[in-house]
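note to self — DONT lose this again. spent like an hour looking for the file last time. sequence + predicted structure for the chain T wanted, 314 res
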Amino acid sequence: MLAQQSHDNLWLREQDHPAINLPRWQQQVDILSEFYQAQSSVIVQKMDDDFQIVCSRQKTNFGLYGGEQFQDAELESLLTSYTGYGIVQSSETQNLSLQLRQFEQLIILPLYWPDGFLFGAIIICQAKQLQYLNKLLPLLETAKSLIQGELKQLHLMQQVQMLSVQDEQTCMLNPYGFSLMAPRQLSLSRRFGSHAGIILLEDIAPQASETQLLHEQKLRQIARIVHDNLRDADVSARIGERMFIILAFVDNESNLSALINRLKKQIAKESIKLNVVTGQSYFTPNTHQSLEPMQKAAMQNLADNKEKLLNIKL
């Protein structure tokens, strides 16, 4: 599991964040509805193939309530193909979803995250004041600026939070991130009766001529291999200068050994040669032990394997 956090992995209505003031968003929707004399005005968020209404104002019951989710390929096409400035006007609504098809005319203003990804849109439905459209555009732009300003604050705060648990060189979790994520995953897995294991990987005996650039390349190689061979539920981190840890959920101990062998085979194929030693510990859900003794057991196994390797070389 890499320490990556996407800003669009949660519906905005379903997370409480100090950067977002939804009552202020609602106030903007109310103002737009009043000035445009619209049948309805909404702010929608897009995530994957779905839309969710964040805020709404409707004169009668059009079914456009906050939290309502719907799919709309035509609206998605309008928003993703938008490349200019200003608004999108649409009087061709027959191909839209049932939620928007009931209106004869829409004014749509796309909204974006600060990194340029689409957030959603402000949609004004069936406005009576179309003759004053240009004069009222500053209202729409003001609402857009306010909303995108708060999205920027949310994005920046998420980046700070992500960096506090992320290893800068590998983009994996750092020790602090692992200490946060691993116990949660372990607790969750025990509820479902999952077995788990700890794997430690350490790149030992660096070459005397190894440069900082080569060292960083090796770290990124190991991080990539670990990431490519783990499932979503597994947790991995860089916990030392050359050491990595994995909390893996498996069906039995042989699966844990198979994962280690697979990692070693992938590491052996790398163009930059790595000298990796592993340690492991395996435990069942009924052991009820915390993560710390399992890590100590894996660390002892790693030390034993390093000693064996040293004796073989001697």
